[in-house]
């Protein structure tokens, strides 16, 4: 399940990057590959944070049940 969440997030980020590339080709927005790369890294860090936070909360819930 965790892999599915990461895959879905990566797919959404990739689609966002492709959309921005198409807009840049048409001249709607400025081309900025560094911004896109940093955004992708931040998306992955955010997903990692969410997964770790939910895992910690799950462990805390299990500890209170014992």
How is the secondary structure organized here?
Blueprint: H1 2-26, H2 33-65
What does this structure look like?
With 66 residues, the protein is mainly α. The chain has one domain (2-65). It contains 2 helices and no strands. The longest helix is centred in the last third of the chain and has 33 residues, at 33-65. The two termini are 25 Å apart.
Mean pLDDT: 86
Order of helices and strands: HH
* Through-space gap between termini: 25 Å
The portion of residues assigned to helices is over 70%
Major sheet: size, sense and barrel closure?
none
Radius of gyration based on Cα positions:
17 Å
Number of helices, counting only DSSP H or I runs of 4 residues or more: 2
Task: Kindly list the characteristics that best describe this protein.
66 residues; mainly alpha; 2 helices
Short description:
The protein is 88% helix and 0% strand.
